[in-house]
Amino acid sequence: MDDIFESIANLRRRGEKAVLATIVSTRGSAPRKESSKMLVFADGKIIGTIGGGAIEYQAYQEALKLIHGNESKLAHYELTNADASKEGMTCGGIVDVFLEPIKPLPSLIIFGGGHISYFLARIGKMVDFRVTIIDDRPEFANPERFPEADETIAEDMASVMKRLKINSSSYIVIVTRGHMKDEQVLEWAVTTPAGYIGMIGSKRKIKTSFTYLQTKGITREQLDKVHSPIGLSIGAETPEEIAVAIMAEIIQVRRQLAETKQ
After folding, report:
1. CATH 3.40.50.720 residue ranges in the chain?
2. Exposed / middle / buried, residue 236 (Cβ in 10 Å: 0-12, 13-18, 19+)
3. What is the pLDDT of residue 188?
């Protein structure tokens, strides 16, 4: 059981998916007791067991179908009828198995390793995000400066953006050291399915950047997705306060997205 829970925690930190199968009820004779668990990985590997044999194989196949979705399922297996006997499920009881997709932690991807990022990374870990820091300066993107971060990348931002896997659970924060790099990242970010995109800057800077990006083919609809000026309006001034304002806005968006998926 400890191995299963440890594996789930590691999977979520790495941004990988799995399905947890748990026996929630049994009636009559069954191969395993209630609360028995099996973790099914995306590559087909499993940890644990819910009894082996045909019932486990059917639950395993069902788990693989659910692994890339968000929907849980209660599977019902009767081990008493003729069809069950043909499948080798001859215990004679009834088993209900709850199949629950294990979702990766939402990703907080911070472009820029400056003072705001320093505090934002800390808060991001506190509220259960997988944190990535990206900066083209090794002295600003390293594990020593960001011990809380799950990943620090010190490379040219354009090359990093090409290989990032972005989805609706990705939250992109753009706080680089200059507006040209901000624009470069933003031009890419608005073409992704990220759940949140925020860019720091004054209203004047934002207007200038948006106008420039529109000349490059970025649409007004794409730019409307951007939270800028970034963060909730709470009168923040210091890097610590700005980081709090940004994370407050991200949490607000995360909850709104969760409500729309229910």
Report:
1. 107-261
2. middle
3. 97
